[in-house]
Design goal:
Distance between the termini of chain A: 46 Å
Oligomer: heterodimer
Largest sheet of chain A: 7 strands, antiparallel
Number of helices of chain A: 6
Helix content of chain B: 25-40%
Largest interface: A-B, 49 and 54 residues
Number of strands of chain A: 20
Number of helices of chain B: 17
Strand content of chain A: 25-35%
Order of helices and strands of chain A: EEEEEEEEEEEEHEEHEEHEHEHHEE
Helix content of chain A: 10-25%
Chain lengths: 306, 591
Amino acid sequence: MIREYKTIEEVAGPLMLVRRVEGVKYDELGEIELPNGEVRRCRVLEINGSNVLVQLFESSAGLNLSNSKVRFTGHGVELPVSPNMLGRVFNGMGEPIDGGARIIPEKSLDINGTPINPAARFYPSEFIQTGVSSIDGLNTLVRGQKLPIFSGSGLPHANLAAQIARQAKVLKSEDKFAVVFAAIGITFEEADFFISDFRKTGALDRTVLFINLASDAAIERISTPRMALTAAEYLAFECDMHVLVILTDITNYAEALREVSAARKEVPGRRGYPGYLYTDLASLYERAGRIRGIDHDDPDPDDAGR
Amino acid sequence: MVEGKIRKVSGPLVVADGMREANLFDVVHVGANRLIGEIIEMHGDRASIQVYEETAGLGRGDQVVSAGAPLSVELGPGLLTNIFDGIQRPLETMHAKYGANLIRGIDEPALDREKLWHFTPAKVFGEEVNPGDIYGTVQENDVILHKIMVPPNKQGKIVELKEGNFHVTDRIGRLKLPDGTMEDITLMQKWPVRVARPYRQKLPPVDPMITGQRPIDALFPIAKGGTACVPGPFGSGKTVVQHQLAKWSDVDLVVYIGCGERGNEMTDVLREFPELQDPRTGKSLMQRTVLIANTSDMPVAAREASIYTGITIAEYFRDMGYSVAVIADSTSRWAEALREMSGRLEEMPGEEGYPAYLTSRLAQFYERAGKVICLGEGEREGALSAIGAVSPQGGDISEPVTQATLRIVKVFWGLDSSLAYRRHFPAINWLTSYSLYRDRLESWFTENVSKDWTTFTGRALRVLQEEADLQEIVKLVGMDALSAEDRLKLDVAQSIREDFLQQNAFTETDSYTSLGKQCAMLHLIFHYADEGKRAIESGADIEEICNLAVHEEIGRAKSVPESEYAEAFAKIEREITSEADRLIKSAREDQ
C-alpha cells in the first residue's frame, strides 16, 4: 500500500524534511504532489528515526508545506530502457521530450548501477581511431577507457567532443556503434550544436540524447549522467553495441553536487565541494570498461569538463 | 547474538538501536541482504555502523545482527595469486559465481574451501609449542613455502598432527591447551585486521630493498622494513612507479593494495604479472603476489578497511620469516574514506575536512611496517616494508594527507608533473626527494656492491644540486658567461638526468637494472666528467668535449643487457680516455 504524507516540515534549497513516515528506504524515489496537481520527483537522502530528508530533483517553487503530498514509490530512481531509445531525446530525468510517445520499456534499470568486479575487467587495449592526430598519436583513446577534455571558457571543447563522436571508430570492427550524449547544464546553443551535428552526419539515428539545459533545474543534473550511463550500459552489455558516452559539462554536475552538499551543511573539502566528490565522480567514470566473457561492450564516458 | 533495529541511514553510515550488548568494532550484518558492516561508535545502546556495501534500500526498523567478532581476515594457504576486495572476499570466485558486477550481500569465504593442500608436519606428537612456532609446511606454489604457524594467542602440547592432503578448514591435528582443553589445528587461522600481529622484537632496518629502479636504488634507497611514500599529482606516473616496485623489488612477497583507484589499473596488474618473470626465481611474478582491490566505484567504507586487510595479510607472511612489501595505491583515497565517514558522524573536522585523528591513523598504519624477529622458535627475521602512494589534489603537497604522511615515512619520492610533461620518467624530482636511510645503508652497499657506490651516488646528488644553482645563473646571464668547467658540470648533470635517472619501465632491458650495472653506469658518467676536466685543464675546447660522439654511447649504456654490460662499458671507458687524449693532443698542437 502506498501512503501519502502531508507532513512536510521544512524546505530549504533542494532539500525537504518529511516527518512521521513509515517504511521508507534509503535512496528510494518519492513523488511530491503539489496543490495544483503537478507531480515532482525526489529521492531519500537520509533516514533519521521517523524523519526523512529528501532531495528534490526539480525546483521547489510553488511547494506548499501544508497542502503538498509526498508518497514513496518503493524503488530507487529507475530508467525504463529499450533498444528503441536510439534516435530519441530525453530530459535529464529520462522522460521523452521530442514529442514522441513514451518508450515501451524492455525493463527498468536502477540508475546507480553496480560496481564492476575488477577481476572481471578486460584491460583496454583496442585502439579507437578518432582521426584527430594529437589524440591518436599522443593521447590515444582506447576502447573501454575514458577521456576527459579539460577546457576553459571560450575554447572549442564542444567541437572536439563532437568531432570525436562523429569520427570515432574501432578499426577492423563491424560491430554496431551507438552514441549516448548527456548535456548537463549546458546552454541551448551548445546542445543544439551537438544535435544538429549528429543530424547532419546521420549519427542521430544511433544516438540517445539526454538534455538538461542551463535553464532546467540544476538539481536534476545529479541524475542526468547516471541516466545516460544506464542507457549506455544497457545498449553495450545487453544489446551488444559499442557505446561512446559523451557527458558535457561535468563541472555543472559537480556544482549541483556542491549545492546539495551545502544545503545539507556538510563539512566541505576543497573549494566548497563535498569531500566525497572524488568517490562520486568515480562512480560515474568507473562504469566505463570492458568486461571479460562478453564480447563487445564499452561505455566510454567522455566528457567536456573544465 | 545481539540484534538491533536501524534508526538512521545516511550513505554508508547506519545507526541502530538496541545494540548495548555488542562490542565496539564487531562485524554486523545489516538488513535483509545481510550487508556487512562494522560498529565504529557506541552511544548508550545506539551503535554507529559503517557499512561496507551500498546501503540503498535500507530503512528504519530493518534488522541489524552482530556477528560477535571483529572484522578479521582468513590467513592460510590460498592467499597467493588471489585477488580480494577490501574485506577479503575473493573477486575471481565471485566473478565466476555471480557475474561481472558486484552484487550486494554476498558472503563468500576468502580462502577456497574446496582446494586440497599437502601438509608436511615439522613437529611430532607430544612436543610443546609456543605462539609462532611452526607446525609444518605447505608448498603453496613454486615460489612460496607456506609455513603453518601456531596462532599468536595459542600454546600447548601437540597430541595429534597428520601428514596428508587437507582443505583449509580440515583438522590436521589437535592441540592440548595449558588448561587441559583440546583444540583442533587447521591450516587456516583468523586475525582481526585492526590489531597488529605481535612479534618478539623490532630491529632497525639496515639492508636495502633493491628495486632495480635507478633513481630509487642509487639516490633515494629504501630499507627492508622501511616506509616510503610517493606523492604526485595525477599523470605524473605514480601508478607506474608502484607497479615497478611491485614487480622488481627483491622481497619474497608483495601485497598490492589498489585502494580507491581505477579498475583498469588492477586489471593491468592481473593481466601483466602472471606473464612477467621474477628475475630471482625465474617464476611468474604473480606467484608471490596478493592483490587487494577496492576500486573507486566500490563502496567507500570498504576502502577504509582495505589497507588494514592488506597489511594484516602482509604481517602474516612476515611472521613466517619472509620479507614482504605492502604497496598501497593510494592512501589519499583511504584518507578520503575516513573523511567521508567522519563527516557523516558529524565530527568536528580538522584540516580541509579531514578528521583530527588522520595523522594518528596514518602513523598506526605505517608503524606496522618494520624489520622484526618473529614469534616462535628459530629467531626468524621478517621484514615488512610499506610504500604508499599519495595523490594530493592539484599536486599541492602542502595538503594534510601528504604532510601527515611525510611526518611518518622515511623516504619521500616526490613525483613532479613538470618532469612528467618533459617525458622524464620516472618523474622523481631529485631536488625535493629524500631518503633518511642513505647513511644507514651505506655499509651494506660498500660491502655488497662496490666501495665506490657511496662516493658515486653522493657525487651524483651533488652534481644535480650544482646544476640547479648553475641553471639560475644561466637564466640570468646566459650560457656563455659560464666557465668551461661549469659548462662541463652542466653537461655531466644532463648526462646523469638523461642517461642514468630516466628509466623506461616498458622496455625489457631498461625496466630493471642491477646494482652492479647502476654502479658501472655512474662510473662511466663520472669517468667522462674526470676525463673532460683533464682535457679542459690541458686547453681543450669545451664545445668539442660536449660534442664527442662517445656521449651517445653513454646514453645507450642503459639498453645494454645485464649479461654484456661489463665488456661493453669497458670499451666505452677506453673510448672516452682515447678521445680525451686526442683532444688534449690537438689542443697542444694548436698552441
